[in-house]
Design a protein that fits this description.
Blueprint (H helix, E strand, L loop, with lengths): L9 E17 L2 H10 L2 H7 L3 H4 L10 H8 L4 H8 L9 H18 L12 E17 L2 H10 L2 H13 L8 H6 L7 H9 L7 H21 L1
Antiparallel strand pairs: 1-2
Length: about 230
C-alpha cells in the first residue's frame, strides 16, 4: 500500500459560541412566525444548525429550537413534528431553510382548526451567536493521522469542521469532506462523498464523529488490502 500524503495538511480547530439575546420574544405561534420572518440570518442559524453544538451527545425531541418550543410550550405536536423532521443540511443556505420553515408554519396555521393565539408560559427568546475558532494544535497529512486526531478532538471541532465550515462557507480546507476530496488534500472522492452524508443522518455531533471514523476505518482497511 502506498500511503497518500496531503500537500496541505488538515488543521483542527474547535469553536465556542458568544450568544447575544436579541430582545425579540414570541408568546404564541403566529408571533413566532412573524419573528422568524424578520430575524437576522444568524439567529435562524443559532436555532437550527447551532442546536447540534448545544446538544452534542444526544438529540432532544426534535433537532431545532422552533419545533421543540412549539411542541412543548405551544402544545402543537402536529406542527412541532412537521418542523422537527426538517434536516437543515438538505438546504444550501440559511434563507432556503428559513423559507421552508415559514412555508410549513403558514400552511399549518391556514388549515388549523384550533385556536392559534394561545399565550404560553415560556416565551420563545430569539438569540444569535458569534462563533470563535480555537486552534487545537493538531494536524493531519494522511488518512491515518486524520483518523487518530478525529478520535480524540473535542466535539466542538466536529461542529466547526462539519456544520460551521459548510454553512458559513469557510475555505474548503476547513471542511472534513472537502479536504478529503481536494487534490491538495487526500483526493479521496468516494470517501469524501460518504463523509458529507454523515451530517444528514439525524445524528448528534458525537454520532457524526463515530460515523466518520467508521468510514475512514473502512477506507484504511481497503487501502491495506490493496
Amino acid at each position: 500500500m502506498i500511503e497518500r500524503y496531503a500537500k496541505q495538511p488538515f488543521r483542527f480547530f474547535s469553536c465556542m459560541e458568544l450568544r447575544e439575546v436579541l430582545g425579540k420574544r414570541a408568546v404564541d405561534v403566529p408571533r413566532l412566525l412573524e419573528l422568524i420572518e424578520e430575524a437576522p440570518a444568524d439567529s435562524i442559524y443559532y436555532h437550527t444548525y447551532s442546536y447540534y453544538l448545544r446538544h452534542a451527545y444526544t438529540q432532544q425531541l426534535y433537532s431545532n429550537d422552533f419545533a421543540n418550543w412549539i411542541a412543548l410550550y405551544a402544545q402543537d405536536r402536529v406542527l412541532g413534528e412537521r418542523l422537527g423532521v426538517l434536516d437543515p443540511f438538505e438546504f444550501s443556505d440559511i434563507e432556503q431553510l428559513r423559507g421552508e420553515i415559514l412555508s410549513i408554519m403558514a400552511d399549518h396555521l391556514n388549515h388549523s382548526t384550533v385556536v392559534t393565539r394561545c399565550i404560553v408560559s415560556e416565551p420563545f427568546e430569539f438569540i444569535r451567536s458569534h462563533v470563535i475558532e480555537i486552534p487545537l494544535g493538531l494536524e493531519a497529512t494522511t488518512l491515518g493521522e486524520f483518523y487518530d486526531a478525529l478520535a480524540i478532538v473535542e466535539v466542538g471541532a466536529v461542529y466547526n469542521h462539519v456544520c460551521e465550515a459548510r454553512m458559513r462557507k469557510k475555505p474548503r480546507s476547513a471542511d472534513f469532506a472537502d479536504w478529503l476530496a481536494w487534490e491538495e488534500g487526500l483526493g479521496l472522492q468516494d470517501l469524501a462523498s460518504k463523509v458529507e452524508q454523515a451530517a444528514r443522518l439525524g445524528l448528534s455531533l458525537e454520532g457524526m464523529r463515530n460515523k466518520i471514523l467508521r468510514l475512514c476505518d473502512q477506507e484504511l482497511t481497503r487501502q491495506r488490502a490493496s
